[in-house]
Write a structure and sequence with these properties.
oxidoreductase activity; oxidoreductase; 9-stranded mixed sheet; GFO_IDH_MocA-like_dom; Rossmann fold; alpha/beta; EC 1.-.-.-; globular; 6-stranded parallel sheet; Dihydrodipicolinate Reductase, domain 2
Length: 343
């Protein structure tokens, strides 16, 4: 893989897969060779060689990398099939697996096979979080005391909520955190380091769905900083495209505040000032999340070519799953849970 283009095959051709396939086509060091879906017409619609059986595709195409773009219930079987067919680089969409035990087992099986398993947690690759991380690390706003994100996509009201885009959302028994807030569990870790404790208060507002769709989660960090995730899928925020950032954020420190607005722009206000300066312009990429899917996949390809380890390996991602479990336990028990007791 050091010099040749990486041969990529995709598994899954649902709603979100369009961003994966588009990104692969824009990475010069990669070559999309095939797509697989149980609905062969969907696989054909990707424009790649189409298959409706994973093992058949892997044997025929011999890809260097398999991109698993499936819901959690189908991920374990896909990863194990890929390992058995000799694939040694796999990217798997989040949420990874159906339980912490299954995620650990898959991680260990991939490691035992000498395969790289990466989780497609792409929010940390959004340009506003990459820029915010650089500014925080540089001390731009002094000592960080709080980071807040308000999730407000405005897509959760009424009996048809989610049906037009991702209908399986309605049946997920764990929804807001497992499907959505997990992005910010990882993003807060990226920005502030591993949290030390969590407290959560979750609720279901829409009676037609199975899981929770609103709630607040408070994270403690060893630095003394706190992070607050405030999510409500019924409410919106000021943005032409409410899915661009999914909401608004504040990073507050002793020397200033950085604000993320719904257009993907970052604004820095110095402590005591009445005005702010734009440090990242609005997103004009026209694709999902500031083209974060392309950024993540480019990162993995660069690591494969360079022989370095990507950020979101399965092993590195396991703490996100443990923290998610602690969030649900906190909501069920009504107490703050220390994270230093997690595996």
């Amino acid at each position: 893989m050091a010099t040749d283009r990486i041969r990529v095959a995709g598994l899954g051709a649902g709603y979100f897969s369009r961003f994966h396939y588009d990104a692969w086509r824009r990475i010069p060091e990669a070559m999309l060779v095939a797509a697989c879906d149980r609905d062969i017409d969907k696989a054909r619609a990707t424009g790649a060689a189409a298959y409706d059986d994973l093992a058949t595709m892997l044997r025929a195409e011999r890809p260097d990398l398999l991109d698993v773009i499936l819901p959690p219930v189908a991920q374990a079987a896909a990863i194990r099939t890929a390992l058995s067919e000799g694939v040694r680089a796999i990217i798997c969409q989040k949420p990874f697996a159906t339980s912490p035990e299954e995620a650990r087992a898959l991680t260990e099986e991939a490691e035992a096979a000498g395969a790289l398993l990466v989780i497609h947690e792409n929010f940390r690759f959004q340009p506003w979080y990459r820029t915010l991380k650089t500014r925080l690390d540089a001390g731009e706003i002094g000592t960080v005391q709080q980071v807040t994100f308000r999730l407000r996509p405005g897509d959760g009201q009424g009996p048809r909520a989610y049906l037009d885009r991702q209908p399986y959302f309605q049946q997920m028994p764990r929804f807001l955190v497992h499907e959505t807030a997990v992005h910010w569990i990882d993003s807060f870790r990226y920005l502030l380091g591993p949290p030390t404790a969590v407290y959560a208060d979750l609720r279901r507002l829409n009676p037609v769905i199975a899981g929770e769709d609103a709630g607040v989660i408070l994270f403690d960090f060893a630095s003394g900083a706190r992070a607050l995730f405030d999510g409500n899928r019924h409410l919106d925020h000021a943005a032409e495209n409410t899915r661009c950032t999914m909401g608004e954020a504040l990073a507050e420190g002793t020397q200033g505040t950085i604000t993320l607005t719904g257009d993907g722009a970052l604004h820095l206000r110095r402590f005591g000032a009445l005005t702010s300066e734009t440090i990242l312009p609005p997103d004009r990429s026209g694709t999902f999340g500031g083209d974060c899917v392309h950024a993540l996949q480019s990162h993995v390809v660069a690591c494969l070519h360079g022989g370095t380890e990507p950020e979101n390996t399965a092993r590195a991602y396991l703490p996100v799953i443990d923290i998610e479990q602690a969030v649900y336990a906190s909501a069920a028990e009504g107490r703050k849970i220390a994270l230093d007791t997690l595996p």
